[in-house]
């Protein structure tokens, strides 16, 4: 039975009374036994014949018995250590926050009123290459979970293997797509299940001592993620349940999350009491008809109303207006759940950042309708990307939670200080084409995908030749994932030739490109630089290889004889032993011939040729190290590194994101180095400004916000 809490006592009295009701049968039984004992032994002292009851009674008053840790579901409620419990949680992803800021963000989540943290576990971050597992740095999930425990926050864990999350390929490792044959994702394909078994066999045992019943913070573990929106392979789901049980035991609560429609729940849940079925739905929808539907997919008494993704905001793609939702309307929708003893998990409590190359993407009607996500994952959450809480949404949500929390809310921490370090002046170092003499080139008759040459993120340069003749040519690339910049040069001029930019072919606006007539005495070099802008993480087109995935045509004829040159840029949580980007910072490129090491003239500084730029700024004292933002107004498109840390992509020409967030732990006392790969149009003054607030007003072209 669902009772409405009284606002005067924050709903706590209702939960307490239900706890008393749950124990009423045991109390009546105890009184009855005592009465029988009294009747049978009226001559002797009443407790003499019942030493066990006397001993428990005495212990209750003198030495309170320690309550056994137990988290369970009964009477359509959550119970923690025998007391009713309401989950007021929030998603906060450890892999989107610098580890030195984990505690800061968790304390702010607690000040919001949350008692539970929900987080995904991205397989690709932890196993970037086959069987080489990483659990350090941003991937140190055990440290994150122990920190939650230290701060008295419970945890709902979502280990996939698919996570969605607006994260590259929904968390699947990119090397899966280089396997031949490729495993069928999210299915009972034996090849795929074998890989999941290997991964979970390493991952899940780490969580056993961290389960709530074993003394840790983890109260529930999710199986898959919104599977009903994708497929209906029940054998796959059941295999995951069996696998999870084999590692976590039979007492751990497993759960699924699916959209709140009958079709999604029919396909994505497992009937019975083996797995708890939770729901999510659009913020503002009436939650209680959905919670009533949820009960049909859980065993009797096993369906506490829970929205595992209560959306506090929404995601934003490049080229869209920055997504915003109202603070008051969000708070009102949350109260509609809490006022009838419902539970909710805010998605997101704190969004964070898609550092490196890990942002995901969505598609529309077909795979060509491609929409890559921003570097920022602010999500318009109550705790901003930079961890700020002095905002209307945080305060509105906190006021609602305070009315229903069973404990007083902690005081609100201050926002972290921000700083500016003035303009950073950069110098052009080297052209990206200086890497075409690399010894790690791949040769093939036809273009190879990025995965097939082991270049899983970033960029791949394709080079071929075609015959020079009078008149222009028409270039066609039927399938390119995701964005190709095209250049040509005369091959007779050798490495001294400067490629000329002729245009861009984009996956979402795939069009033929007119190549100009080029006066050459020999063949013409054709350069195609392809950027992987993030793998699709949701929907039917999730299998998303990168690079040139078709033949390339000139005037309808196939171009044959290709060389592929990987561009070695490191990703989040990778520390390269050798990387040309690092070397560029110090103006040392060991792979580039000394003939190319020359001063660049002004025209080269502002050319459309992709190039590396570097600069530095000085921080005088450790106390001056603060969060900051890099503003890329007047720049084109590219990737930025600060002190060898991959902050991610910038694209102010497309917008809406103009700035990139720089967490203070990335900076250091003394010289700080900035390296940029600018793909299109550098700022004519070659200056990047540090600013103390984010800016999402760049390049908006009026596109509608895409909602999944």
Description of the structure:
Helix content is 20%, strand content 24%. It is built from 14 helices and 33 strands. The strands form seven sheets. The protein has an eight-stranded parallel β-barrel with strand order 4-5-6-7-8-9-10-11, surrounded by five helices. An eight-stranded antiparallel sheet has the order 30-29-32-27-14-33-28-31. The protein is an alpha+beta fold and 708 residues long. The N terminus and C terminus are likely disordered.
Quick structural overview:
The chain has 708 residues and is an alpha+beta fold.
**Biggest beta sheet attributes:** 8 strands, parallel, barrel
How far the N terminus sits from the C terminus, by CA atoms, comes to 34 Å
Q: How many helices?
A: 14
Strand line-up of the largest beta sheet = 4-5-6-7-8-9-10-11
Number of β-strand runs? 33
Rounded to the nearest angstrom, the radius of gyration is: 29 Å
**Which shape, going by the Cα principal axes?**
globular
Give the rounded overall mean pLDDT.
88
Query: Which runs of at least 5 residues are low in confidence (pLDDT < 50)?
Result: 1-63, 588-600, 702-708
Structural class: alpha+beta
Helix content estimate: 10-25%
* Beta-strand content estimate: 15-25%
Helix/strand layout:
Blueprint lengths: L11 H11 L1 H17 L10 H12 L8 E4 L2 E4 L2 E3 L2 E5 L9 H11 L3 E5 L2 H4 L14 H10 L3 E5 L31 H14 L14 E5 L11 H15 L4 E7 L2 H7 L7 E5 L6 H9 L10 E6 L15 H12 L4 E8 L10 E3 L6 E3 L19 H13 L18 E9 L10 E3 L13 E9 L6 E4 L3 E2 L1 E8 L9 E7 L6 E3 L8 E9 L14 E2 L4 E2 L2 E2 L3 E6 L12 H6 L16 H4 L5 E9 L8 E4 L6 E5 L2 E6 L8 E4 L7 E9 L8 E5 L17
Parallel strand pairs: 4-5, 4-11, 5-6, 6-7, 7-8, 8-9, 9-10, 10-11
Antiparallel strand pairs: 1-2, 2-3, 12-13, 14-27, 14-33, 15-26, 16-22, 16-26, 17-21, 17-24, 18-23, 19-20, 19-22, 24-25, 27-32, 28-31, 28-33, 29-30, 29-32
